[in-house]
Specification:
Elements lengths: L4 H10 L1 H8 L4 E3 L2 E4 L10 E4 L11 E3 L5 E2 L1 H9 L4 H12 L22 H10 L1 E2 L4 H8 L11 E9 L8 E11 L5 E8 L19 E5 L6 E3 L5 E5 L2 H10 L5 E3 L3 H5 L9 E5 L4 H16 L3 E5 L6 H8 L1 H9 L4 H15 L1
Parallel strand pairs: 12-13, 12-14, 14-15
Antiparallel strand pairs: 1-2, 2-3, 3-4, 4-5, 6-7, 7-8, 8-9, 9-10, 11-13
Helix pairs in contact: 1-4, 2-3, 3-4, 7-10, 10-11
C-alpha cells in the first residue's frame, strides 16, 4: 500500500521522539522539545522539534531559530542523511516505520491548494470582518483570567461565528473566537491567531476556551512575526502567549510588547533595527530555558541588551491570577532596568491613579 507525504508525516509524528533520537542523535530532549544544532545533526540548541501535539502546534514540526527554516520530520530525514529527493526520504521513512515499500506509480501533476485555506489574504480578510472585543465574551474571558484592563492597541478582535474544522473527515463547526492579528516589523498583517471560546461560560479547566480538540490555531505567515501591542522604539518585551503579554501590559501598558505564539516562533522572532533592550518574558519550563538561550544569543549578536523576566509560577498570567496586579508590579520592579522602572512602571501607576 502506498503512503503519501501527509500519511508518512503523521506516522513519523506519532514516533517523533524516536525519529529524533535516531536521525538527530547529537541532540537531547528538553521538556516537550528535541533540541539540536541543525537538520544535519550538528550539536547545538538552535533547532527545536516539537515532540507532542499541543495547542501550540503539531508534533514533528520544527524550526531552526538560527536560519528561520522550518518543516516536518520527512525534511529531517532527508537533510540529516543527505538524501537526493523526496522519493529517497519517503523510502527511508517507510523503512523506519516498517511500512511496505511504495509501488512505482506515474508522476501526478501537482495540485494547488486553494489560497483561502490559510493564506495571508485569508488572515487579513478574517481580521477585517471581525469586530472590536469590547463588550464581547472575548473581553469577559480575558477579564476572568485577571486581565482587567486590556491594553491591546487594536491587535485583538472578536468574531461571533468563526469556522472551526476538527479534521478533514468531520463537518465544519462555528464557535465565537478571539482573533489576534500577526504582523511583521512594518506592521503588515501576515496572519491571525484564533482562540475559539465557549459561549456557555468560563471554567477553571478550559479557561473559557471552546470544548474542541485544538481551541487555538494560527493561519498565515507566522515565522519571524508576532502579535504586537504598541509600537517598538528602543525597548521591547517579548514572550510566547497572548495572555502572558497582556498580563504584563496590565502593569506596563506603555511598554511595547510582542507575543510570538510559541516557543519556536519566539526564538525565531525578527528584531527591529532600532531595538536597544529586549526583555524576554519567558515561561518557566525547559522550552523557556532553551528559547531564552537562543534568543539571547541572537539579540546580543545584534548589539541588543537582553534581560529575562521570570514569573514565580508557570507564566505571568498565572502570577497575575494567583498573586494579583500589585504583587506582579512589585516583582517586576526588581527585574526591570532602573530607568525603565521610571519610564514604564512608575509612570503607568501615576497615570492609573
Amino acid at each position: 500500500m502506498s503512503h503519501d507525504a501527509s500519511e508518512l508525516a503523521r506516522g513519523l509524528a506519532r514516533e517523533a521522539e524516536a525519529v529524533c533520537r535516531h536521525y538527530l542523535s547529537n541532540g537531547k530532549r528538553a521538556g516537550r522539545y528535541w533540541l539540536v544544532g541543525d537538520v544535519h545533526n550538528t550539536p547545538g540548541r538552535s533547532l527545536f522539534v516539537r515532540l507532542q501535539e499541543s495547542p501550540k502546534g503539531l508534533a514533528g514540526k520544527w524550526t531552526d531559530a538560527a536560519t528561520g527554516e522550518h518543516g516536518d520530520l520527512l525534511d529531517i530525514i532527508r537533510e540529516s542523511l543527505g538524501l537526493r529527493d523526496f522519493r529517497e526520504a519517503a523510502e527511508e521513512a517507510r523503512r523506519f516505520l516498517k511500512l511496505p515499500r511504495a509501488q512505482q506509480q506515474p508522476a501526478l501533476k501537482p495540485v494547488r491548494s486553494p489560497a483561502s485555506t490559510g493564506s495571508q489574504e485569508a488572515a487579513r480578510r478574517l481580521f477585517a470582518i471581525s469586530s472590536p472585543i469590547e463588550g464581547t465574551i472575548a473581553e469577559a474571558c480575558l477579564q476572568r483570567r485577571g486581565i482587567a484592563r486590556i491594553h491591546h492597541g487594536g491587535s485583538l478582535r472578536f468574531h461571533p461565528r468563526c469556522y472551526y474544522r476538527p479534521d478533514d473527515n468531520l463537518p465544519t463547526e462555528t464557535w465565537p473566537a478571539m482573533i489576534a492579528r500577526v504582523t511583521d516589523l512594518d506592521g503588515r498583517i501576515t496572519g491571525v491567531h484564533r482562540t475559539w471560546l465557549d459561549p456557555d461560560g468560563f471554567d477553571r479547566v478550559r479557561l473559557g476556551k471552546a470544548p474542541v480538540d485544538t481551541p487555538r490555531r494560527a493561519m498565515g505567515d507566522l515565522l519571524g512575526n508576532a502579535v504586537r501591542f504598541g509600537v517598538v522604539d528602543d525597548v521591547l518585551a517579548a514572550g510566547e502567549g497572548i495572555e502572558t503579554m497582556l498580563s504584563l501590559r496590565c502593569v506596563l501598558p506603555s511598554m511595547p510588547m510582542a507575543a510570538a505564539l510559541s516557543a519556536n516562533h519566539l526564538s525565531a522572532m525578527l528584531l527591529a533595527s532600532g531595538l536597544r533592550r529586549l526583555y524576554i518574558a519567558r515561561d518557566a519550563d525547559a522550552a523557556g530555558d532553551a528559547v531564552q538561550a537562543v534568543l539571547t544569543q541572537r539579540a546580543q549578536e545584534a548589539g541588543i541588551e537582553v534581560i529575562p523576566l521570570s514569573p514565580r509560577l508557570g507564566d505571568f498570567n498565572e502570577d497575575l491570577q494567583v498573586f494579583g496586579v500589585d504583587v506582579l508590579r512589585a516583582a517586576l520592579q526588581f527585574q526591570l532596568v532602573p530607568k525603565d522602572v521610571v519610564r514604564f512602571l512608575h509612570s503607568s501607576r501615576v497615570a492609573a491613579e
